[in-house]
Design goal:
By secondary structure, this protein is mainly α. It contains six helices and no strands. It is elongated and about 50 Å long. It starts with a helix and ends with a helix.
């Protein structure tokens, strides 16, 4: 193996695994994740507002609610794959994991209702979406450095 390969290989491998070696960067990643998931929920809330006003079509609602759920799920999965560096970070991970799961559940309910074209069921998800967004916002504010 050539000298440059010995240097490049560890760097390449390290780039493939999300890391946070200390609590500060880990908490920052948690806050970013909470913000991304909250943003996905807020996207759904905008869709619900348009649905309530009769300004949407079924295919848009189906795609928009599905995309919101996918974005939240992706952000949550990425964060949860990061090894917590200490016990406090592990508790942070557990707290955020519950919030992300709750958000994914209600986003899933919105997606199902949206794909079925069930306007009433879709609009019913508003309270759950708002609660999940508020909880994520509180988490972000509490842990923002």
């Amino acid at each position: 193996m050539r000298r440059w390969q010995w240097v490049a290989l560890p760097l390449l491998v390290a780039a493939c695994v999300p890391t946070a070696r200390t609590a500060g960067p880990y908490a920052a990643k948690a806050v970013k994740t909470a913000d991304v998931v909250r943003s996905a929920i807020e996207s759904d809330l905008l869709v619900l507002e348009a649905v309530q006003k009769g300004r949407t079509i079924a295919t848009y609602v189906s795609v928009a609610t599905s995309d919101a759920e996918d974005h939240a799920s992706s952000a949550g999965s990425t964060f949860l794959s990061i090894q917590p560096p200490d016990d406090d970070s592990e508790r942070l991970r557990d707290d955020l994991s519950k919030l992300v799961t709750d958000a994914e559940d209600v986003l899933g309910e919105a997606r199902i209702a949206g794909r079925r074209g069930d306007r009433d069921a879709l609009l019913f998800t508003r309270a759950g979406l708002q609660r999940a967004a508020d909880a994520l916002d509180r988490f972000s504010e509490e842990h923002r450095g």
